[in-house]
UniProtKB/TrEMBL annotation:
Protein species of origin: Mucor saturninus
Location within or outside the cell: Endoplasmic reticulum membrane
Compositionally biased intervals (Polar residues): 1-10
Region Disordered, residue ranges: 1-25
Organism lineage string: Eukaryota, Fungi, Fungi incertae sedis, Mucoromycota, Mucoromycotina
Keyword Membrane: yes
Domain (Reticulon) ranges: 42-218
InterPro entries per record: MFS_trans_sf (IPR036259), Reticulon (IPR003388)
Protein name: Reticulon-like protein
SUPFAM superfamilies documented for this protein: MFS general substrate transporter
One Gene Ontology cellular component: endoplasmic reticulum membrane
Keywords (A to Z) from UniProt: Endoplasmic reticulum, Membrane, Transmembrane, Transmembrane helix
Main location: endoplasmic reticulum
Length: 218
């Protein structure tokens, strides 16, 4: 009985292992595709491939950093909602008053078309939401894996590099506010790549020259 049971379970175990391996491979490929997509998008933004989008995001980041220093997200959300509701309420009331004064009857709600179309319109595309949620999960997973590699010292040079960056950030945060640090980080990110692209040959030559001087002194 034991022999028969073993001969039947072995092929199933092999199929299960193959299936698990295929799932892992597919997940790995999907994660790599997400990484390449994110890198390309970030490069396009920082290289100002689309100046309008880059300028908009740059402005949003800077404004967001300074707003969140003085106001909470809850306050900003409530303030925005109050402005929108108040403005629309004024528009509706004024429209009704003007119509009643001019034509002696109430006019239709100026947002009537939106209110009528809301039942037949799909405001949230479920496929798009699932796609971006899946992409977000892949990005978070990649960040977690990279953090594990750094913390567990998978590569000595990489861990030393991030140790130095972390130490510099720690020292800077003792003397400079987080707002200033984030502002300069955003400015450097959006400015350094275009400058490097325009002066690539000169910058590479200076880096090689500096590297030669350092190696000579060592």
């Amino acid at each position: 009985m034991t022999t028969i049971h073993t001969s039947k379970s072995t092929p199933l175990a092999g199929v299960s292992r193959d299936s698990t391996s295929q799932i892992k491979t597919k997940h790995h490929v999907q994660r790599e595709q997400t990484a390449e997509f994110v890198k390309a998008e970030i490069f396009d933004i920082l290289a100002w491939k689309n100046p309008t989008r880059s300028a908009f995001l740059f402005g949003c980041f800077i404004i967001g950093v300074y707003l969140t220093e003085y106001y909470s997200w809850f306050y900003l959300g409530s303030y925005t909602l109050t402005l929108i509701i108040g403005f629309n309420l004024i528009v509706v009331v004024v429209t009704h008053l003007c119509s009643k004064t001019t034509h002696d009857k109430l006019a239709n709600n100026p947002y009537r078309q939106i209110l009528e179309d809301r039942e037949n319109r799909t405001f949230v595309n479920k496929k798009s939401v699932l796609h971006y949620v899946s992409m977000l999960v892949d990005i978070l997973e990649m960040m977690l894996l990279a953090l594990i590699d750094i913390v567990c010292v998978k590569d000595n040079k990489s861990s030393v590099k991030w140790l130095i960056i972390s130490l510099i950030s720690l020292l800077m945060s003792s003397f400079v506010s987080g707002t200033v640090i984030f502002t300069w980080a955003i400015v450097v990110a959006f400015v350094s790549l275009p400058i490097y692209s325009r002066n690539q040959a000169l910058i590479n030559a200076r880096i090689q020259q500096l590297g030669g001087i350092v190696n000579a002194r060592l």
